[in-house]
Design a protein that fits this description.
The protein is mainly alpha-helical. About 55% of the residues lie in helices and about 5% in strands. It contains 26 helices and four strands. It has a four-stranded mixed sheet, covered by helices on one side. β3, α25 and β4 form a beta-alpha-beta unit. The longest helix has 22 residues. This is RAP domain-containing protein. It comes from Anopheles melas.
Amino acid sequence: MLRLIRICGTAASIAPKLPQPACFLLRYSTFSPREFHYETSDGENGTLMHRFSRHVSHTKRDFTDKTKCSLKVSNFYPLPDVATYGQQIRDLATVDLTKLIAFTTDFRSKTDVRSYTEVVNALDEECVRRVPRATTSELLEMLHCFMYLLPNKIAQLKSYQAALPKLIELFDGAENERDFLSIVFFLGMWKRNKTGAMLMKEFLQQHLPRYLTPDMSRMDFVIVANATYKTSLRMVDESDAFRSRLETEIAEFGDEDDSALLVTLIKCARMNRLASGEIVEKVQSFTESNIDSKELDFRGLSHLFAYIADNRIKDDTLAGLFVEGCWSRFDAEVRKHGFETQSQSCRPKDMATFLWSCATLGVPIESYPEVKMNLLEKAIRLKVEAGEYRYSSDLLVDTILSLWICNRKSIALFRLLFKDKALVQNLRKERAKQESRKDLLLTCAEIDLPDAWDMIKSVRKPSADAFALDRAAPEFLVRPGLKKVAECLHRLKETKQIPIVAIHFNAPVKHLNIAGILVKLAGGEVKNVDVLDERHCLSDRESPVGLMKLKARILEDKGIAGGMVNICRHETAEALEEELRRILLEPKERR
């Protein structure tokens, strides 16, 4: 690029009066050629987003405009004059320009990447120029054609970013159901962007109550739900009607209906943190009915499993169904395609979702004979080597940590995490959302793999206090359940039922934010008491969540005496005191 800039600068100095071709100047405006070298849009025509796009295109477009298209494609493709392309398209009517955008898809396979990039940039720039004077119909037609041409990159277009605010402005003067859904659909493409999220929130707050009626079809509602999910907009707290409709759509979803639509609704429910017994029942019945269906792939099944994990449902049979179902699909994918990278069925984030669900529910994944953990680790390793985790190192951290919680201490993957320089560079970044899980993984490695210190030094200085039994717990970790048990211990101490010398809140495992109670007895013995409350147990009110099991396992490996008191089961003071006497006074072998 620097060489090209030097050449451009030299040419300009020699002949300053010669006009530069518009496309030449725009070559690096919106896209650069390298962005299209590994573009996968052509292979994703069957994805759900394309189904939504076709639905909106076929049912929500204004077909009353009878303006005839006078475009002659042969004047532009397959051999366009790149130097004058910008001026050529400037002379086109808008209706012809939108058709040219669609025909550019065919041109793509017949030219080199650099020429294609120049053409796309020129089309984008010309559309930006026309946005201020365009009508709603012209803007939507423009976006539909760009969606056909660049489904994975449409939100990067300057014309897209300029068109959406203009569409909203025009909509306020001529509201209708057809344009409402079209605007919501296209806003949903602007994900991971504050401007897009703000526009979506304001637009739905103003117009959703009018259009979210019983007459809205399921497909239309799924498109709205998916758009809010993509832009990370929690509408359940904003609209009771949206919450009610979301619950109803899921609960009334037929077991024979399209699994992709249900998965989309479940993802929206997860993002909105919508807990519902009816939804859990639907997920269970749908999974049982479709466990052998090829339409329900690894990606979809992992999201259904994640909803069960979100709600901490303790059901070993159901969990086994998910584990076996996900593994059979993963194994089939490997057998069919080998360890081919860039698989749309077993993406890194879907594998991370599946393993997170297992870890949250404390599923002993290695106890399933059909699950070959070495095969899973090999797939992850090859994806790392192929660069699929390079820009999402947090996914690899989540994956390795989830395996660790499931008692699969993957030393090979942990070493691989520090082998790739780009991954290490990303790990050094201070990002609050991922920081806690990264720190916990490093802590687990310090405790379980003392020889891993040399690798950990590349990210942070090993603290040498990853485990400290007498580390004081900060106040924000002292839960009401802990205080309740501590009060009970103080009563037992005062009444001399137990020879207690001191009681402290402790957090022995650094970065594992589950505090406990350290009890020192008169004989010099020290015992650790953990409290199982509703926050840290599954739906049966007896089984601990994965992180609590991880802490218990670390304490056991360190040989720390003590136990876990379940305040969900021992609700009265008398029952709680009896349980504490059993933990603190009885020998371990008698408990």
